[in-house]
Amino acid sequence: MVRILALAAALTLALAAPALGGGWAVTTLDNVPDRFDPGQTYAIGYTIRQHGVTPVSVDRTEIRITHGESGKRLAFAGTPQGAVGHYVAQVTFPAAGSWSWDVTQGPFAPQDLGTLAVGTTAAGAPASADAAPVVPAPVSATTAASGGPNGLLLSGLLIALAGAAVLFGGQLASARRPARA
To answer: Mind giving me the DSSP string for 70-98?
Structure first.
């Protein structure tokens, strides 16, 4: 019985190790325009970095935009360009208004890029040549709720703790049994 419990604990820990191998990434944008106008196409460059450090190539990435008022959602594929992990997507905001956007990062969780006021100033008035620039929200690492590094660490610790409890419980059970004659 102890051998079975020990084997179960070892398998649990062995299967949990790959999950902790690195399941998060950060996307950083190249320079973006000061203002976005409806109907114009913008080449948005970005780099995906695993653990926020190492540029990584992914099979599929795209910038997704969602219109705040209508809920219309569009996606623009990123194509590899230049260095490893660098992509460019041709993005067009078809209408003025508030647009949220994010970027998919292949096997990693999507990253929120904030909200943009397209064709308007922050106060909602039509944009003019001397209007203040509209800049996307700062880029940050994915959160634990979306599978970020803290979520993986917590999951791994819980699995390891469960495995240790099974192993320790098996040792206790065998220590309390009287020796057979």
So the answer is: T--EEEEEEEE-SSTTEEEEEEE--SSEE
